[in-house]
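From the methods appendix. Each design record in this collection lists the tokenized structure first, followed by the designed amino acid sequence. Records were kept in a plain field format so they could be parsed without special tools. The example shown here is representative of the layout used throughout.

RECORD:
FOLD TOKENS (386 positions):
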């Protein structure tokens, strides 16, 4: 079912961001941004690496969706799309040696829509396209920044949609918990999250972060055929695109068998829990990213992994602005900003001893309200699945 108010609110925010950036229009290829602006979805993963559809959004005027050939009907009922045209694709797989010819055809159409305007925000554009537009006097601006600033504050309807997506993810995690048993592979357990996400109407998983036992350390190993042992920790990060196209990014670490955790397993879990708790308390309106960075708890150096630089990041239809780094990384790679009401963020924690044997990864998704951060997931944090 199409939610007209949800789609209209998102498009209005993106138009405002285009205007505030000093641009006359935006041209967006990122399928996440196309969906944000228009509500339309088509071959999302394919179009992440094949620029086969795009949308032209003026600060004022008609929104023109350039759709993959034969798919024009997919925008039916989406009020934010005023016109649908067939996309002119010019990536090498499509054009071979005729790329220049197709680029000129594409550029002529975009120039026509600009109708004499010169400032265009573009999120992704290969060199041939950028050259074709600039030779016509078009000034290109950073469309990723334009889209990120629009998406960082969620509308009331978006927050409601995110709650639905998180509830569906919670149910999927429940299914994982029921199925988890020593003797199954990491991939078999990970498949339960895929199955439940798709069954609920979700879409895809962006990573493969589920590992068990010795493979939890170092973190950022991918799910494998490794067999889960009875005394193993099982750590995972959902990183999924769920119901309504909204992302849910939460992490839990469980004990696989029925035995009590070892003192080391409990120590790691306690450290990660403390880091998560204190970060969430800092995510309040008006707090600066630098303030959060320097006020956040980091685990003891003997169990702190520098690999996990993020302590919080924005999330909507995918991971997005802002990215808040811990104090080990802030000076070299971080940036400042301010937490605002309506942001949806993920607080991250990792206890992972350098050269150790296991890790504990925890992550909570929150919405920022006037009163502070509200946790969205109902999933318990404990090592022993309830």
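DESIGN:
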């Amino acid at each position: 079912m199409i939610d007209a108010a949800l789609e209209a609110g998102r498009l209005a925010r993106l138009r405002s961001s285009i205007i505030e950036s000093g641009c006359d229009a935006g041209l967006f290829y990122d399928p996440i941004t196309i969906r944000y602006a228009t509500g339309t979805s088509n071959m999302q993963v394919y179009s992440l690496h094949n620029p086969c559809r795009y949308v032209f959004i003026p600060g004022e005027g008609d929104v023109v969706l350039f759709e993959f050939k034969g798919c024009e009907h997919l925008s039916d009922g989406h009020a934010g799309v005023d016109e649908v045209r067939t996309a002119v694709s010019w990536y090498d797989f499509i054009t071979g040696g005729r790329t220049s010819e197709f680029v000129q055809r594409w550029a002529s159409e975009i120039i026509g829509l600009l109708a004499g305007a010169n400032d265009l925000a573009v999120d992704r554009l290969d060199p041939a396209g950028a050259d074709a537009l600039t030779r016509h006097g078009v000034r290109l601006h950073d469309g990723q920044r334009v889209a990120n600033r629009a998406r960082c504050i969620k509308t009331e309807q978006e927050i409601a949609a995110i709650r639905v997506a998180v509830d569906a993810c919670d149910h999927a995690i429940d299914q994982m918990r029921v199925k988890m048993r020593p003797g199954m592979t990491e991939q078999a357990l990970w498949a339960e999250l895929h199955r439940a996400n798709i069954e609920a109407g979700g879409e895809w998983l962006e990573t493969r972060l589920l590992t068990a036992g010795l493979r939890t350390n170092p973190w950022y190993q991918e799910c494998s055929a490794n067999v889960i042992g009875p005394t193993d920790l099982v750590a995972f990060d959902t990183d999924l695109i769920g119901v309504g196209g909204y992302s849910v990014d939460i992490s839990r670490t469980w004990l696989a068998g029925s035995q009590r955790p070892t003192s080391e397993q409990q120590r790691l879990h306690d450290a990660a829990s403390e880091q998560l708790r204190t970060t969430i308390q800092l995510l309040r309106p008006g707090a600066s990213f630098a303030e959060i960075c320097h006020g956040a708890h980091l685990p003891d150096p003997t169990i702190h992994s520098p690999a996990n630089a993020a302590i919080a990041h924005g999330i909507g239809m995918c991971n997005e602005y802002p990215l808040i780094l811990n104090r080990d990384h802030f000076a070299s790679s971080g940036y400042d900003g301010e937490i605002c009401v309506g942001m949806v963020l993920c607080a991250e924690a990792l206890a992972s001893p350098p050269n150790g044997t296991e890790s504990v990864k925890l992550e909570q998704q929150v919405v920022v309200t006037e009163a502070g951060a509200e946790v969205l997931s109902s999933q318990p944090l404990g090592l022993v699945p309830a």
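APPENDIX NOTE: The radius of gyration is 22 Å.
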